[in-house]
Amino acid sequence: MTTMDAISDMPLLEVERLCVEFDTRAGVVHGLRGVDLSIRRGETLAIVGESGSGKSVTAQAVMGLIDVPGRIVSGDIKWKGQSLLTGDGPKRAREIRGKEVSLIFQDPMTSLNPLLTVGAQIAEVLQRHLGMTKTQARTRVLELLEAVGIPAPPRRANQYPHELSGGMRQRIMIAMAIACEPQLLIADEPTTALDVTIQAQVLELIAGLQETLNLSVILITHDLGVVAGLCRRVAVMYAGRIVEMGLADDLFERPSHPYTQGLIRSTPRLDDRMNRLIAIEGSPPSLLSPPVGCSFRARCPIAVERCTEQPPLAVVHPGASAACWRPSVPAWQESPPLEAALT
């Protein structure tokens, strides 16, 4: 392998043993408890899990948006091999945020400024990061609005967020995120509260932009159907930790962790008519006082005494790792893989 090959194969982003805590009146919430992940150029990584599992906190930590009462207590975040947390890292993190790494927030209505036109908000990104003049920024804003499928860009650029539909506001957020042609795009539940048709359009738009701009994408979602259609790799999070990681095709065909098996089993399928969905029993643990050992132990149907010890994220078969003392292919999965049913 040549030096250039080694550089191109280097992960853009590496998250190493990241721990994040939040001070609350009830006590310290352990939001992330040793998260490890990486993503390379042009790759799409999905992060899935129940609400409160740490998906959005991971995105905010990467973007440098963890603020009081939150704090990063240990671990590291590296961009192109250089730390964003130590030495001059925090300064570098501010420089790349919005320029090389962008985030599509979950709710565009609360993320957009209601007092500024959408055109002015996109232009601000261009002037701040690329030093464009107002005239240059205006021209680029119209190009971006057209690129994300907004009709009549000159008119829409002069409108305020409340004058646009939910789907259009989400497209505005995408336009802001890609304005500086970043290398990594983090999409945090980009289709929340949108109807099914608009969801499909937004996801198709992200996929098209990824191909056009050679973007790396981290897609945070709870929708396994979205994962099956878009993502190459999947990280499954539970109670602030990654419990399974692997190629999407492999994960749908052979989920190893009981929690992943539960998620897939509780997902409706087009090829299997059930009178009632099979839910995962119990509730996620409180991160004010995380349980000792495997966090899924209280809800796990195959838990054993050893589960009182924390299992490491270890390779269970080629292309897949799971944090479980008893990883297995579920006996109930006799029908074709979920991915085939969703696509």
TrEMBL record:
Coiled coil spans: none
Principal location class: membrane
Protein name: Peptide/nickel transport system ATP-binding protein
Family annotation (Pfam families): ABC_tran (PF00005), oligo_HPY (PF08352)
Residue stretches making up the ABC transporter domain: 13-264
Record's keyword annotation contains Flavoprotein: no
PANTHER family xref list: DIPEPTIDE TRANSPORT ATP-BINDING PROTEIN DPPD, OLIGOPEPTIDE TRANSPORT ATP-BINDING PROTEIN APPD
Organism of origin: Kaistia hirudinis
Location in the cell: Cell inner membrane
Keywords (A to Z) from UniProt: ATP-binding, Cell membrane, Membrane, Nucleotide-binding, Transport
The family this protein is said to belong to: Belongs to the ABC transporter superfamily.
Membrane topology: Peripheral membrane protein
NCBIfam families: oligo_HPY
Listed GO biological process terms: peptide transport; transmembrane transport
UniProt GO MF annotations: ATP binding; ATP hydrolysis activity
Gene Ontology, cellular component aspect: plasma membrane
